[in-house]
Amino acid sequence: MYGELVLVALIVIGLLSRSSIITTAACILLIVKLTHLDRFLPSIERRGIELGLLFLTLAVLVPFASGRVQPKDLVAAFTGWTGWVAIAGGAIGAFLNSRGLDTLRADPQLIVGIVLGSIAGVLLLRGIPVGPLMAAGISAILIKLIQLFMGK
Predict the structure, then answer these.
(1) d(Cα 136, Cα 132) in Å, to the nearest integer?
(2) 15-35 pLDDT, tens per residue?
(3) Is the pTM of this model over 0.85?
(4) Residue 149 CB: number of other CB atoms within 10 A?
(5) CA separation (Å) from 99 to 12, 57, 103, 105, 140?
(6) Angle between the N-to-C axes of helices 2-16 and 110-125, in degrees from 0 to 180, rounded to the nearest 10
């Protein structure tokens, strides 16, 4: 019963914060729970990130498939400083995401803080909760830095 109450609370928070992503995710999980399809929760947990990344990658690649990105746009990515910054940002983001995935595998209870932080970011900062891996990667870097400065 606790899980259902948390999901209902997340639905309310998602509605109040106008976050359709949190609301929809909590609704889907609540339906899974209420229809006694709990046996699929481990599969959703295990493959959910992969499916999410697949759909994010599809959305990012659509401009290539639709022809909106032309060869001149690819050349511009290598000839201007903003293109190089974008390439560096993509590389750093990918690195942080891999650190985030490693961190979540090693310390899964961090997901509670990441979810709470994501909700706070949506409510207080009008953010978009699409980056739990990035949040975990940033958390991993911050944890390492704090451990370094604290001498642990």
Answers:
(1) 6
(2) 887 778 788 989 999 999 999
(3) no
(4) 8
(5) 32, 19, 6, 10, 7
(6) 20
